[in-house]
Amino acid sequence: QNQHWLQIPKRSPRPLPSALTVFTDAGRKSRKAAATWKEEEQWHSQVLTATDRDSLQTLELWAVVWVFCKWVTRALNVVTDSLYIARIVERIEEAEIKDLQNKRLAQLFI
């Protein structure tokens, strides 16, 4: 008897109608990342400052990780202009994380 787990995906290819929408972005020159969202007719934002180990890609990833950590159980629409992040999010549910040379990147994935 072959039995397989049937996993319910946590990601949707289309926006969720009743979910909170959060916009993320990062700047190479400013060395900052931000998440912005609107709740109860009021805009909010969180600014994250890069560490010495951050690249633009790790800053973008940090912003998205921050969003998912802040709203662990809430349905979210996350908007990013980073193709790097969009591709990671598409694949992360079924990915196996290998030993990474970039310790900061490894820290964000775990």
UniProtKB/TrEMBL annotation:
Molecular function terms from GO: RNA stem-loop binding; RNA-directed DNA polymerase activity; RNA-DNA hybrid ribonuclease activity
Domain RNase H type-1: 18-102
Name of the molecule in the record: POK19 protein
Alphabetically ordered keywords of this record: Endonuclease, Hydrolase, Nuclease, Nucleotidyltransferase, RNA-directed DNA polymerase, Transferase
Chain's gene name: Ervk19_1
One Pfam family cited in the UniProt record for this chain: RNase_H
Coiled-coil residues: none
Top-level taxon of the source organism: Eukaryota
InterPro entries in the cross-refs: RNaseH-like_sf, RNaseH_domain, RNaseH_sf
